[in-house]
Amino acid sequence: MTRTPTLVLTRPIVASERIARLYDGPVVVSPVLQIVGTDASIRLSGYAGVILTSANAIPFLPDLHGVPAYVVGQETAAACQADVRLVARDADDLVSRVTARGPLLHLCGRETRGDIAHRLSSAGIGTDSVVIYEQRAQDLTEDAKALIENGEAVILPLWSPRSAQLVGRQIKTISPGVRVIAFSPAVAKAWFDETGGDCVTCAEPTREEMLRQVDVAKVG
Known about the structure:
The strands form two sheets. This protein has a six-stranded mixed sheet with strand order 3-8-7-4-5-6. It has a five-stranded parallel sheet with strand order 2-1-9-10-11, sandwiched between helices. It is built from eight helices and eleven strands. It has two domains: 6-32 and 138-219, Rossmann fold (3-Layer(aba) Sandwich); 36-135, Rossmann fold (3-Layer(aba) Sandwich). By secondary structure, the chain is of the alpha/beta class. This is Uroporphyrinogen-III synthase. InterPro entries: 4pyrrol_synth_uPrphyn_synth.
């Protein structure tokens, strides 16, 4: 009888628990990032809309009903309860497609990619940013570390370059039984740079594609 692989989830706890509920098999949840609010003051008056680049921002947002929003990812779009005008694949896609006159406000984490506010402002769309949460590094649990280093049937999805780096730095070896899936080429590069290890890269940086790759790894 073929053993169902153990899914090791290293996303922040809320996101990991959402994925865990969808997996029919053993799961180990070991977040390497803790999402903590900064208690930043958010004033939306004077802005033509907001930019959201991660679902991690959702717990710290003000009421966005009716507020135009330009977001990265379907997961963020579904959770933000705003008037979503654009759903982009990543930061580059968002910058290239925003057509708002501005000014816009990017509600973001302390660790961001893509330099969105600067690039949009340089393109004539005035954009400010407010850091509303930070991503604090955490250690892998001993169970997660043992599975990655010695597991016989393990699926390890990696969703961000930083999480790929943090996981890579904490392990000594990668078991041949671990199937690593990178959310994007940037994540795959971070994993390779940190570990020298190979991985499968999602064809598109979407939650649906990552779940599809997890299903493929589960039966393959």
